[in-house]
Write a structure and sequence with these properties.
single chain; alpha/beta; Rossmann fold; 7-stranded mixed sheet; two-stranded antiparallel sheet; 15 helices
């Protein structure tokens, strides 16, 4: 299962609030609109968070209809994009409908000034129509990813990730992946602790592991197998520092090895080995972000066994070292205006490491 992406660079938080413009439009889904408004809205993280100035804007005048049957009013026009450091297009009403020319031009101008532009879910179609994704990696909802790739062959479509951070342009998969992308943005702007506080207020995971493959329509296990799998997964998360063999995990779930591995893939879209590796990586990343523990101790607590294995895993999966990752997150305060450099590790989540390489480098982690 894929890992989460690397953080953005660090600098100093300015006194002025970071301005976030969120686009509303006629026919918008209230949920899609609410995601960036909750993450960057007032008081979500409590005291001590950097200031954000959130403005909901629209190209159309008058009340805007929503898919839920009620109307809303945006108090700002497209001029808000000219003043924003981050512009978020939370969705789009119809991927087959070309966005208004005025909106596309406003997005191009904002991006040319150095504004970070974000397309959540079908908002990626709007960014693509504006030409902001040409030659870049991007994603959108899995159901429309083939159509997205067909219409925009100049874009490197990543259909199996929750979001893609390409520096000054970000895109996310459908619906709930917008939360993942916005929390990732918040982590880059305000730090891991603030993002974690916001996630707790929203009652969501600050770092959701996995990719869209988990959510593509597929048969799910029947009967009590899902409950047994959930129990085993919860137990493993509480014992990540221990080695785990497939036979032992299957026995804990009261299944044969073959049934256990098949049902695990059906339920998660991943192999047991991939899932375990991602949980260990997530644990190591969190410890690096929030503690000053030595690498050997972090490696042991996350189940990597040694600092050498931890370094090899970071290099293979994230293209960086644990020390560099820690330096990025532990340096503070963070900048609400800093843009990450284009061309670095971009996609969240990354490609899985081949099993042969894992068995060579990380044989002590999982006994198969």
């Amino acid at each position: 299962m894929p890992s989460r992406p690397l953080p953005s660079p660090v600098a100093t938080v300015p006194d002025a609030p970071h301005r976030v413009a969120v686009l509303a439009f006629d026919g918008i889904s209230p949920f899609h609109l609410s995601v960036p408004c909750m993450v960057f809205g007032p008081d979500m993280a409590g005291s001590g968070r950097p200031a954000f100035e959130l403005q909901v804007c629209a190209d159309e005048g008058g009340p805007l209809r929503t898919t839920a049957g009620f109307t809303i009013a945006a108090t700002h026009g497209l001029a808000a994009l000219a003043r924003a450091q981050t512009v978020i297009v939370p969705s789009w009403r119809d991927p087959a409908e070309a966005p208004p020319a005025a909106l596309l031009q406003a997005l191009r101008r904002a991006h040319a000034r150095g504004t970070r532009v974000v397309g959540l879910c079908l908002g990626a179609f709007v960014l693509a129509e504006a030409g902001l994704l040409d030659g870049r990696p991007a994603t959108t909802h899995w159901h429309l990813a083939p159509e997205f790739a067909r219409r925009f062959p100049q874009i490197d479509v990543r259909p199996d990730v929750l979001y893609v951070d390409d520096g000054d342009v970000l895109t996310s998969a459908g619906t709930a992946a917008g939360i993942d992308c916005c929390l990732h943005l918040l982590r880059g702007l305000a730090g891991a602790d603030v993002a974690a506080r916001v996630a707790r207020r929203m009652v969501v995971a600050p770092h959701r592991q996995g990719g869209q493959a988990q959510y593509i329509e597929q048969p799910l296990p029947r009967g009590g197998a899902d409950h047994r799998l959930a129990a085993v997964m919860a137990w493993v998360l509480a014992h990540l520092d221990e080695p785990h063999g497939l036979d032992a995990l299957a026995a804990r779930a009261a299944m044969s090895r073959r049934s256990f591995t098949r049902r695990f893939r059906e339920a998660t879209g991943s192999t047991v080995l991939q899932w375990l590796q991602d949980q260990r990586l997530a644990r190591a990343q969190r410890l690096l972000e929030t503690s000053s523990k030595p690498l050997e101790r972090i490696a042991a607590e996350a189940g990597f066994g040694s600092a050498l294995s931890l370094r090899q895993w970071f290099a293979s999966r994230l293209g960086t070292s644990p020390s560099a990752y820690r330096k990025a997150w532990m340096t503070h305060p963070r900048s609400a205006d800093a843009l990450p450099p284009r061309g670095g590790p971009a996609s969240g989540p990354a490609e899985p490491v081949p099993r042969r390489a894992l068995e060579g480098h990380f044989a002590p982690l999982v006994r198969s």
